[in-house]
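Re: folding output
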Amino acid sequence: MLVPIFDTTFLIDLTRGDVDAISTAKQVDETTDIKAVSVVTVHEYLRGVYYHHIGKKTLDDKLRKAFTDLAHFEQLEFTTSIAREAAYIDALLLKQGNKVPYADVVVAATSKHHNIPLVTRDSHFKVVDGIVVIDY
């Protein structure tokens, strides 16, 4: 299996103990040592932690856990080439009447740019041409 890139939904599902996400993670662990996320996923994941715990005593512990979770993944940068690819994908999808959230467009562009499969359960990624989507 090629190095996969995981979307934010997968990471959240995995940390919440979703059976399908755990099964997929185990399969990937058996076939490759390297797993990746976009820095956009890092942002979304940490935003969720801050949103739910900002101003609470739990914030520091939750952030430590989040950084430990994220340390298991190579974090792929958002480059000018990926921004160009994302702009193209976004414009094409809008012209086709498909509205995909901006963060997911960037994740799809990252997958396409690096030519690696995207692990997700979000069906809107399937409308993006040129990426391989692995459902869980």
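--- second protein (sequence, then structure) ---
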Amino acid sequence: MFEKLSESSGNVIGYKAVGKITGADYEKLEPEVEELVKQEGNIRMLLDLEFDSVTAKAMESDLAFGHKFHKNIDKLAIVGDRKWEEWMASMAEKLFAREAKHFHTADINAAWTWLRGN
């Protein structure tokens, strides 16, 4: 599931992905992001990746989410300590955001600072 992070404000929004990620999780996430885009214009997003597993439907929904919001996400901070998350950040600029960067879990405050910077 996606848990909205309390540090979210203005056009900067963050989520922690925990447990098992399913297609239904994206059905809840997408309207919230869509509403923020309507209110704020382009947004900046943090994803703290601590999930255990992901369903095939969630992977499909993830790609659809990226296709829908790619033009609206100026910056995407991917937070986590697994090697594949670093690789994901490099791919995110092509699929999810105009600019993406990986941060280790211990550096989550730096991720928020980067998102809020110009």
